[in-house]
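Researcher: Please translate sequence to structure tokens.
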Amino acid sequence: MTRINPEYVERIKRLICAAPYPSLVSMRLEDVQVGHCRVELEVRPEHFQPYGVVHGGVLATLIDTATFWSVFLSIEREDDGLASVDLKLNYLAPVFGGKLIATGRQIRMGKRLGYAEASVADADGQLVAHGTSTLMVLPGKGIRVDAPRELAD
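Model: Translation complete:
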């Protein structure tokens, strides 16, 4: 069984949280493991649509991000990357503020495609959105991190 290097995971989390888009939407990758991840976002005024409800694109971003990271560590080759092929989601309740927590779970990983689901809940645990995504492995498009991905046996 592959053992993921905790230092690699921490560097990935720092890199992603400092990247332009996650910073723009105030999203944080809080936990990433093989087959699972957690992404959090504190709702800010710019997340609202004109009717005072958090824009659906914010929830879609959380689902897209959580499905991606739940599959990421299952890629066989460290120098490969991922891209979303599709994203399907359902909005289940309006969000008016607070903290949003997206939990991603890998359902299946093959050599070229992965499939995952994610749920978004508010701070009280109320489910506000759910979705699935198919992700494609992109050879040679991996994230460069100055730490080995796997621990030596």
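Researcher: Any highlights?
Model: The mean pLDDT is 94.
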